[in-house]
Every structure is written in structure tokens, then in C-alpha cells.
Amino acid sequence: MKTPPQRLSGQIVDLHTRRVFPGTVEWRRGRITAIREDATVREKHLIMPGLVDAHIHIESSLLPPAEFARLAVTHGTVATVSDPHEIANVLGARGVVYMINDGKRTPLKFNFGAPSCVPATTFETAGATLDANAVSRLLARPDVRYLAEVMNFPGVLGGDPALRTMMEVAAALGKAIDGHAPGLRGEQARAYAAAGPTTDHECFTLEEAQDKLAAGMKILIREGSAARNFAALAPLLTSHPERVMFCCDDLHPDLLVGGHLDRHVRRALALGVDRFAVLRCASVHPVEHYKLDVGLLRAGDPADFIVVDGWKKFRVLRTYLRGELAAQNGRSKFPRVRSATPNQFRARPRGAADFAVPATGAKVTLNVIEALNGQLITRHRTEKAKVVAGHVVAEPKRNLLKIAVVNRYAAKAPVAVGFIAGVGLKSGAIASSVAHDSHNIVVIGADDESMARAVNLVIKHRGGLSAVGRGRSRVLPLPIAGLMSDLDGRATAKRYTALDRMAKQLGSKLDAPFMTLSFMALLVIPDLKLSDRGLFSATKWGFVPVSEPAS
């Protein structure tokens, strides 16, 4: 007996003919069989293709894929293009396979890439290495959809043989090559694009994006927890609407509870951008660019679509995946499933003395990281040091704190300590084992004792986020690779929110203190960052001293 079709009527948003018309969508066995225009339809809600995040690290939500999906579908997300290089830096290829398999337990369409830079640089300690052969083997899998962001842009420009091999293999397999080239302009941008990368999500100025568009690249407008570039790049939605996609890159659970790409859409519509251009950026473009098996509301397509209350509020009422109702009125229809907890964590507890910085003289000049709110880039500042009993100390009153990175893959290794401005803690410390991209433990604090306490809370749980100060301490354990929680998504978001609140009570003025903290060890983003091996300048592409005798 033939299965009868399912039907839904409303205002059909056709992104291919760029028109909205009353009609009915029919589907059977997960695939659309017909879309019928019908002037008698009176339902006012909009029916349109689901939303696709063109670049996101699922790990940064602090949730495994199956739990991420339960939150994302409530906001109209039907698919993601996801780079699993966070877990790959911890567990190697088995971490990538873990993400793929966990994602397959849910109807949301995860599309994982093969990480191209594990480790991201040779100037830090990671938990694994993926060489050209390992990446090629991943690319050969049909469930690995693209070569993930090629972050080592100096290596691309210098003709690194391993990177060249990875890009050649991806191109031969017809798989997209993602870029990552913050700050590249002019001839360098052209050379980078000519080598193979076709997208970039790291533009933080309109001029940079225009240079990369001129080089033939597509631009992903990013708005996440730490990096927020929507305002700067929004003009591209009018000037280059067919060359733009939307992404979050990194989105902590507190924000994911409240929204996903639907935020991008609402914001763009509020600016008066053509509604069809906006929705194509949120669905059509990533599906076509990455050749995704995701429906776009056409006869014959998978029945992946959403129902929205209207253009003004753009509130997602229902999400359908393969014809099944995945979410309704802000609640997921997916059951809660527990994820496995693979990990690699060998660090042992530390003492306050591990974070002491001996002075190189009576008068010392410091090379200081300046964190910028809403940005992944930092500035390189120099400051006069305060020396007490032969050691350089933090000065919270001057907004000058200590930052340290502790190697998580060795039981005992030297602690790298530097100085940072712009975080704003007045007392205490915050720490995290989410520290892009090698995911050692990063900590920022007002004093050595607090830093040791915060780090030891993370070590005790073999990964997590922690805050200590004013007689209190909080921790969010992350037992999955030291990156993800095994709690329900909303419970994780609640505990994260409490940590975020505590960091701000300790004095931080940053919008997302823990997200900013997690990027202070990412060496490939200019300019000054800290790895477990020392203070690093992306501009000089090498280490610089933490302190120098004052001239």
C-alpha cells in the first residue's frame, strides 16, 4: 500500500524564483513530491528552506553533536558545515570519527570537514598530529565533505608541501577548501586564494573582505560569541549578495539556547536588506557551495524546511528534517541521548609558584597581549612592570593581569606565563581547557594563588571551565575531550551562564570572558598570543620575550 503524502499549507517562500505565493507542500518518505500554488490558502505563516551554518565548531558550544542538534533545530537550523579541528587537536582522527558518529544519531545534517592544521602551528603542544596522509584518508570518506579551514596561511603562501598535498587531494575529489586568513590584503590575499581556499570567515574589516572578494573568494559573515563581524561586513549583503554566507564559527551554549542563524536573518532583515538575498545567504549558498544533501524546498528535494511566523519577528515555529517534525514552538522533538566521553588529560595539580615571573632587572618592560572585546585579534602593547621581591606581578588596578598556559598532555611541564590587558578582572582568576587550537589549559588571573586554584579545578575534572575569587569557586566539567559537557544542553547553558556572571562579578567587562579567554592561545590570529611554549607574535611568526630590561 502506497504511503499517503503529508501536506502543509502556507505562504511558500521560493528562493529560486524569488517570489512568495500561497500554496501547499507535499512530501512522502522524507522527500518533497510537489509544491502546489493555491490562491485559496489562507494561512499566513511562511514556509521556507531551513537555515545552514556555513562554518561552526560544534565543540565550542560545549556540547557534543547530538545535544547541539536539540538546541539548534529550535531556531530553524537544519544543517551545519562543521570543522572538528578542536577535538582533532586532542584526539586526532578518532576525534573526527567520534563527531561524525555522534552527529549521525540525530536527524540534523552535520557536514564535517577534514581538519587541515593539526596542530595549528609547530609552536605549541597538541594532543595529536594529522599529516597529509591522515587528512587524505579522511577526505576519501564520503561523510567528510570538505577540507576544513587552512589556518596556516604563511604555509600556504610559502608553498608548504603538506598543505599543497591536502588541497590537491580535496580538489581532485571535488570537495571545497575552506580558508582562514585574518588580515590578508592585496597581493597576499590573491596568492592565498590562488592556492586553493575558496572561502574566508576571518574578515574583520569591509576593506579586507573586498580584497578577498576581488581575489575570487566567498565571504562568510561571522557573528558568534567572541568574534562579531556582522556590523562591519553587512554592506556585502547589498553589494555582493551572491558571494556571501552566514556563520557563527564559535557559539557558547548560553547564546545557542536563545538563537542561532535566525539571529543573523533577523538582523539583516531589520537593516532592510532584500529578503531573498538574506535567506539565500542563510541556506542556498552553503548548500550549493559545499554540495550538501539538504533540501531547498523544491520537488524532489529532501523535506528539510521551516515554518516562520512572519518577516518582522522571524520566529521559527516549526522545523522539519527529512519530513519529520524536529522542533515546535521552541522545543526539540529529539530525545536526549547520552554521548561517550573520550579524553586525553595528563596534567597534574599546580602551585602558585608555577605562575611566578622572575624580574630580569630592577626596571622591566613587558610585552603585553591586549584583548579586544568582540574580536579574536589582539594588539601588542608594552607596559612598565611592577616588581615585588624580585618578581613581576599583576596589577589589576591598571587592568594588567597575568595569563598562563599549562600543558595538559604532560604530567608536569613548564608553565608559560605572560601578561594581558583588556580583560578587567579585579580579583580572582578564570581558567579553561577550551583553548584554541591545541586545548591546553589557559588561565587569566589577578594573583598566582587564584590562578593555581582555577587551573587545579580544571585538572580535577580532566577538563572544564572554572572561576575562583572572593571566597567562591565554580566549575563546569567538560569530560568529552576536555571540550564538551555530557549534561543536557540547557543545563550546560545554565552552568555556563553562572560562570560567565561570576567572571563579570570579578570585574571583567568583556561580553564573553570565557570565549575571549579560549582564543588567547590561538597563535594564527594576530598579533600577540600565548602558547604552552611562550609568547608568540603572528606578525613576526615567532616567539617574543615576555619581559625585557627597560631602556
Distance between the termini: 88 Å
Structural class: alpha+beta
What gross morphology would you assign? globular
Provide the β-strand percentage band: 25-35%
Helix residue percentage: 25-40%
Q: Give a quick account of the main beta sheet: strands, pairing sense, barrel closure.
A: 9 strands, mixed
In the CATH scheme, the class of the largest domain would be Alpha Beta
The whole-angstrom Rg is 24 Å
Q: Could you name the CATH homologous superfamily of the largest domain?
A: Metal-dependent hydrolases
Total number of distinct structural domains: 2
The second-level CATH architecture of the largest domain is Alpha-Beta Barrel
Summed up, the helix count is: 16
Regions with little confidence, pLDDT below 50 for 5+ residues: none
Q: Would you tell me the overall average pLDDT?
A: 96
- The total of beta strands comes to 31
Q: In the CATH scheme, what's the topology name of the largest domain?
A: TIM Barrel
Give structural notes.
By secondary structure, the protein is of the alpha+beta class. The chain folds into two domains: 51-293, Metal-dependent hydrolases (TIM Barrel), CATH 3.20.20.140; 352-549, no CATH class. Helices cover 26% and strands 28% of the residues. The chain has 16 helices and 31 strands. Strands 18, 19, 22, 23, 24, 25, 26, 27 and 31 form a nine-stranded mixed beta sheet that branches. Strand 29 (534-537) and strand 30 form a beta hairpin. Helix 12 runs antiparallel to helix 13. The model has no long low-confidence stretch (mean pLDDT 96).
